[in-house]
Amino acid sequence: MAESRFERGSRILASIDGQGGQAVVDSLQDIAPELGNWIVEFAFGDVYADPTLDARQRELVTLGSLVTQGDTAPQLKVHIAAALHVGLSRAEVIQAILQTAPYVGFPRVINAVNLARAVFQNEDEAKVHEG
Amino acid sequence: MAESRFERGSRILASIDGQGGQAVVDSLQDIAPELGNWIVEFAFGDVYADPTLDARQRELVTLGSLVTQGDTAPQLKVHIAAALHVGLSRAEVIQAILQTAPYVGFPRVINAVNLARAVFQNEDEAKVHEG
Amino acid sequence: MAESRFERGSRILASIDGQGGQAVVDSLQDIAPELGNWIVEFAFGDVYADPTLDARQRELVTLGSLVTQGDTAPQLKVHIAAALHVGLSRAEVIQAILQTAPYVGFPRVINAVNLARAVFQNEDEAKVHEG
Amino acid sequence: MAESRFERGSRILASIDGQGGQAVVDSLQDIAPELGNWIVEFAFGDVYADPTLDARQRELVTLGSLVTQGDTAPQLKVHIAAALHVGLSRAEVIQAILQTAPYVGFPRVINAVNLARAVFQNEDEAKVHEG
Amino acid sequence: MAESRFERGSRILASIDGQGGQAVVDSLQDIAPELGNWIVEFAFGDVYADPTLDARQRELVTLGSLVTQGDTAPQLKVHIAAALHVGLSRAEVIQAILQTAPYVGFPRVINAVNLARAVFQNEDEAKVHEG
Amino acid sequence: MAESRFERGSRILASIDGQGGQAVVDSLQDIAPELGNWIVEFAFGDVYADPTLDARQRELVTLGSLVTQGDTAPQLKVHIAAALHVGLSRAEVIQAILQTAPYVGFPRVINAVNLARAVFQNEDEAKVHEG
């Protein structure tokens, strides 16, 4: 039987964001459950599902977008973690953020590298606890 | 003798943007020549010069940033052409633009794919004239 | 048989935007046909389909959003026409634009009322030609 | 005797925002008292005073504008409360926020529904304390 | 008899923008005359009227704001002309635009210096015709 | 021997931001040291170094830019302090923020005067401790 949009979206969401994306979707259940569905079905079931770009390439575009937009700290943290989860290195994530400097200036970039530091530290602490 | 920042920036600018980037720099000579120098030296001599990300990866970030920012049509056209110049396919450029839809909504994305169409058509016409 | 998301979206799109929305969707067929589908299925088939707000209320929110975002002239023209099409008066459309002045300042508002004038004039001319 | 702009603005501010708007105006007295006056006189005495749109319609436009602009959390909380105060239901407020998703993407919308949840909870707690 | 807000605003508008500001106000008469009044009364009669900053200082802030916001080309042209009208030199206007580069990146700055060139050329042509 | 870009940038950074700017640069050493260098060399060694505008004029432009951009609270606090450090009065800083109201609306301006109050209070407390 064919995979539904929701199933495809859930599978891709998990493969990209690990647990972070599903946590966002779950957190919306009490206030706007359709918003969670749209993120799964439209963002991941439709947009991310096209194989022309791989997950690493999609996260590079997404980092460029979120750093530039501003006022997206929670989403930027999820996607910095997602970028690492799909195989970009910490150095590549930092360089992706720095790449936006000529286009959006230093304030957005400074705030984004500070968020990256926090994500890296959370990861390090999680590994210590697991270890 | 060591390559200067300006020389390094000019070399990288040419390798990424082809003639489009230099045309922007040249166009600023009469009104704000230091701005042209900063683009060569800072954007290309400093930011793009780090080898951690390759030119294709940097253009994916840049497309994500420029689509999101808005009111950047001239720069977006230069960087759509640059993305093709460094080896991304037309399909990859379109997918990079579409990847921003969940993050910035449809208006920015519609306007950007319309710019991409114009860049592709310019390229096709240039090839006819060359042929 | 149940109406599909695409059928529901197409029906709602036509009821709200008249011919203007379908023209946008059609214009994307050659460059990014999935984008046209997403607009029909996600924006109109999912978001607009909820009956909690009626079409007039949704267009008031949409005008507030598009005026504020900036660099959305083509979309703003479509939605000014849509606002009239679903029954808002010209005076209500102008007041909706003016309502954003305390929140986004005068430049966005001046540019938006100039677009509204153009939409109103197009409509007047179309009526003369029909008459 | 005719109502002054300040009196008209104060009356409309109270009718729309309840105590939240006046609290903002009062909070500015020590640092920029003219800013408080401008909000009363220009935003409420001039803009909101036109009867073409009613208070519910104006709050729909305002929610569309504030969600879209970003970095407006304090103002968005005041206007979510104002929307409820003038008679929009919680479901209508959530739908107004969701309506912006096709135009500004998910990050702004996720952050806004999280603010709405907080405003609803504050209201519920206030009712318990009153009760 | 005391000068009204409208009279004060009109006087300051003329002193700062020369004919350009009044032309904007006049152009709004047919579509949203209250918007023209608000610009005169609120922007110029209230905000600009405070003597703490002089007209040159206010135009420096305004240039920083308009370059940064984006999609404000008509307003930026009016205020580049206004900056010259109140006594800033062409070199100071260009430097004011360049000063935003570290904060908003190159695209906004490139587009703004291109607008400045157009304003300077218009002025030069007007002088030739007057001469 | 000629002053290097880094030396010139460091000197100008200290003259404008006092200790606040260097603190930002230092804070980036562990996560993105080249970003700190770019701020010193490009922003201060190149952009601020041109003598056409003095430091007070540059801070007026910068305040206009940062208030308008939004999501720049840390940078706005540094530059409100910098504006005072180069000789603008508190009243001039507040007026510079208020000057953006007609161009970006009240939310950005309210948030910025609240940041200014915090900077002024920090300064007052520092003086008490020094005294």
Strand content of chain A: under 5%
Overall mean pLDDT score of chain A?
95
Give helix and strand order of chain A, one letter per element, not per position. Answer: HHHHHHHH
How many H/I helical runs of chain A? 8
Question: Helix coverage percent of residues of chain A?
Answer: over 70%
Radius of gyration of chain A: 15 Å
In the CATH scheme, what's the topology name of the largest domain in chain A? AhpD-like
| Extended strand count of chain A | 0
Architecture of the largest domain in chain A in CATH? Up-down Bundle
Q: What structural class do helix, strand and pairing data of chain A support?
A: mainly alpha
Number of domains of chain A: 2
Main sheet properties of chain A: none
CATH class of the largest domain in chain A: Mainly Alpha
CATH homologous superfamily of the largest domain in chain A - what is it? Answer: AhpD-like
Domain Carboxymuconolactone decarboxylase-like (chains A, B, C, D, E, F): 33-117
Organism (chains A, B, C, D, E, F): Bifidobacterium favimelis
Protein name (chains A, B, C, D, E, F): Carboxymuconolactone decarboxylase family protein
Describe it.
- Chains A, B, C, D, E, F: This is Carboxymuconolactone decarboxylase family protein.
- Chains A, B, C, D, E, F: InterPro entries: 4CMD/NDH-1_regulator, AhpD-like, CMD-like.
- The structure is a homohexamer of 131-residue chains.
- Chain A contains eight helices and no strands.
- Chain A is mainly α and 131 residues long.
- The first copy, chain A, has two domains: 1-52, no CATH class; 53-131, AhpD-like (Up-down Bundle).
- In chain A, helix 1 (5-17) packs across helix 2 (19-27), helix 1 (5-17) packs across helix 3 and helix 2 runs antiparallel to helix 3 (33-47).
- The longest helix of chain A has 25 residues, at 106-130.
- The mean pLDDT of chain A is 95.
- Chain A binds chain B through residues 39, 42-43, 47-48, 50, 52-53, 57-58, 60-69, 72, 75, 89, 91-92, 95-96, 98-104, and chain B through 39, 42-43, 47-48, 50, 52-53, 57-58, 60-69, 72, 75, 89, 91-92, 95-96, 98-104.
